[in-house]
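Researcher: We plan to redesign the surface later, but first we want a full-length starting point. Tokens attached.
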């Protein structure tokens, strides 16, 4: 049960004599950057083996906190975003794969959009006095033939500008009825910069008022279209390494410009930037983009759900140059954690599947109390294509402590890993630890059985 501490203004003082939010006159701005399909191996500060580096994101990590055990809510876009926004398992809202056409959604046993009655982090912050905005990909309803999706405003945003997969896409980004077109006013390779500019403009227009901004670019999702290569609308090799590196280089540059502009405008002193990804990479380029972790987009192995996660501030809000390799964080923790940081009351009617990890976000490592659960797909042949072979996983997963168990809905396919000893998931130890399997398998299948059907 949630304690009343979530409703008490102010936070405990930070380590090292750093000023607490309770002692500050202003509540912090929060910019949440949700990169699209970025693997943990895309950033050189995570030990990437790519031919290029990511100097600006490395700088963000060196000036902030880099976490090594952060998990998204799902290995694919729509449910990942739903879990982040609501603080609840996305399947509670009948979103278990990517939202698509009405027929496709129904075949995959999904709703057409996130119910606006669901809990919403931006709504809680807005009701407590924050100005809120969404700039970037939405993918929580709208696009294709779904014409009745609620406006993004209904989820608690004051402003928005979004791409094709949204209820009201920005006309500068959608010259055609598809994800991108060579006729778009804002070209495919300019979009991240466009959203960064929108973010800075929103902060400037609301100076003196705390702001919460979703900065959700659709980079580095395929197709990888870079201006340097003068590509046509369906270029050969748009999923090639060279094209990916072109897009990644520009994306890193835009993240550097974001930090630079925050500093130039004086926002950095009272702004927290969180940088992460919605799910693992697709394609993984032979696991280079997962740093060798097993899995990728659409897989419940680590490469599909363990994401880069950096917390940055140019002021004294958090320690810098720190690596937190012990705290285990879920995207579903963000609702309680950021509400706490923003001193925003969480209604007692809201029951989060995450927990308050705000101390970790501010620099003090925390021990996780709750298990983390995942479910990816309901109807195998109707959902997003599953990875083949080595990366194909069972569809239900639980992590408790260092144990991670994956199990099929029938209960016949069971895999157990000790992630502390085997982070690359190479040794199934289920036969060595039948007692652990018995407990975790029951928890996972009972949890899956408790989820609603469409």
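Model: Full-length starting sequence:
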């Amino acid at each position: 049960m949630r304690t009343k501490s979530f409703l008490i203004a102010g936070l405990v003082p930070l380590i090292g004599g750093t000023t607490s939010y309770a002692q500050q006159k202003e509540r912090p701005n929060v910019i949440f950057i949700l990169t699209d399909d970025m693997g943990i191996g895309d950033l050189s500060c995570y030990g990437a083996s790519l031919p290029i580096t990511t100097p600006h994101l490395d700088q963000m990590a060196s000036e902030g906190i880099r976490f090594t055990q952060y998990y998204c809510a799902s290995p694919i876009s729509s449910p990942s975003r739903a879990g982040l926004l609501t603080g609840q398992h996305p399947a509670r809202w009948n979103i278990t794969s990517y939202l698509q056409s009405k027929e496709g959604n129904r075949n995959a046993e999904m709703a057409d959009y996130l119910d606006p009655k669901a809990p919403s982090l931006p709504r809680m912050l807005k009701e407590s006095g924050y100005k809120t905005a969404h700039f970037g990909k939405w993918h929580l309803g709208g696009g294709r033939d779904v014409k009745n999706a609620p406006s993004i405003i209904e989820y608690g945003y004051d402003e928005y500008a979004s791409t094709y997969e949204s209820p009201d896409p920005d006309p500068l980004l959608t010259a055609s009825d598809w994800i991108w077109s060579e006729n778009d006013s804002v070209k495919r390779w300019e979009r991240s910069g466009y959203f960064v500019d929108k973010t800075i403009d929103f902060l400037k227009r609301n100076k003196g008022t705390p702001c919460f901004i979703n900065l959700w670019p659709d980079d580095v999702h395929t197709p990888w279209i870079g201006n340097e290569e003068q590509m046509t609308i369906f270029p050969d090799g748009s999923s090639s390494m060279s094209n990916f590196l072109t897009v990644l280089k520009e994306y890193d540059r835009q993240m550097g410009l974001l930090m630079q502009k925050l500093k130039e405008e004086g926002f950095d002193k009272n702004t927290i930037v969180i940088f992460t990804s919605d799910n693992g990479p697709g394609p993984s380029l032979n696991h280079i983009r997962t740093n060798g972790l097993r899995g990728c987009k659409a897989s419940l192995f680590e490469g599909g759900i363990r994401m880069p996660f950096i917390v940055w501030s140019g002021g004294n809000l958090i320690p810098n140059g720190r690596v937190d390799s012990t705290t285990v964080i879920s995207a579903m923790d963000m609702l309680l954690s950021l509400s706490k940081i923003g001193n925003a009351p969480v209604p007692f009617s809201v029951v989060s599947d995450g927990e308050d990890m705000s101390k970790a976000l501010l620099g003090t490592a925390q021990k996780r109390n709750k298990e983390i659960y995942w479910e990816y797909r309901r109807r195998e042949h109707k959902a997003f294509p599953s990875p083949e072979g080595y990366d194909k996983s069972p569809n239900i997963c639980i992590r408790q402590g260092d144990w991670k168990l994956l199990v099929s809905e029938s209960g016949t396919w069971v895999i157990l890993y000790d992630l502390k000893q085997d982070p690359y998931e190479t040794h199934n130890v289920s036969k060595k630890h039948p007692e652990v399997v018995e407990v975790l398998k029951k928890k996972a299948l009972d949890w899956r059985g408790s989820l609603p059907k469409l």
